[in-house]
Amino acid sequence: QWAEVLYMRNRFFTALLLSNVIFLTAATVSVVGGGVNDFLKARCSGRDFPFPIGVFIILVYWFFYATFGTAASGYSLWRKEQYRRKVGYPIAPRHAHVDMLFWFLPWMLSIPISTFLLWLYSDTGNSCRLLGDHICSVSGCCILLLLLTSVSLIVAYLRLVPSLTTLMTSMYKSIGTFTVFIMLYLVLTGVFTRVFQVRLFSASSDYVVRNSTSISEENSGPKSVNFFTAFYRTFLVSLNIIDSSMLSPTDDRIDMSITHMIYILFVPVLFLNFAIGILTSVVTHVHEHSPENRYLLILSVAEFSEMILSPTRSAIRKL
């Protein structure tokens, strides 16, 4: 009953945050589209193109919203720690800090992402020179990260709806677990990308150049492949989408075939099967402890709301 009362006290604040995140998600999806890529391509090619003012407004809103949330959360955590030391209350366990981090992390990530996108769209001269042909891909990935942060917050708040608690909790914990696997997957793919970049892609480009009749003998040196292109090709290799002509001939063919087999075996196959097994275990655990999870969520959100609202209430009382 105490947990329910504490939650009901701040339910308006929770609903306000949820509606704000939903608005940000819908506005980002509706404003950011193919026009952004047209703008970047036109500016990078030296042509004049009107600046997408709607994208600028959304990114500025993202920046101030994330900055306010991060600053308020940081100040509230500091204020709470000061009060804890004053009364001599024992420090919270580590898992409590980890649970609160999932509320703060989307806000903290949104600050550098929105700042980078504002620079990307406003200073197209330097951004085009730095990123080259990959500028549209980088822009799309950053927009996708912003949407992922907003979706994670939506799922986090929808966990409080009684009829959706089990489903959203399973999804939320699965997102956190799968994010760790994605980071490991990117690291492993990056390692194999470097191997393929030096031994496979550059060697195959050199083979194509040396065997082309339209290219002179003096231009038959190895053609370098940048890391982003090599990473994309390595990702295609993980999907088993690879042309045999990419493998360089004679001695390197056996060597790179073995490397390709090791990559396919350890990265996509074993790695994804292990991830699916862990996610299944997470969902099973959530279903077994559904009532307890909801009350823990209520306490977590109530603490989160009290931490942010308490400085505001104190300021209002002083006024």
Automatic annotation (TrEMBL):
Q: Mind telling me which residue stretches traverse the membrane in this protein?
A: 12-33, 53-78, 98-122, 134-158, 170-192, 262-283
**Keywords, alphabetical:** Membrane, Transmembrane, Transmembrane helix
In the UniProt record, does the keyword Transmembrane helix occur? yes
UniProt protein name: G_PROTEIN_RECEP_F1_2 domain-containing protein
Native source species: Macrostomum lignano
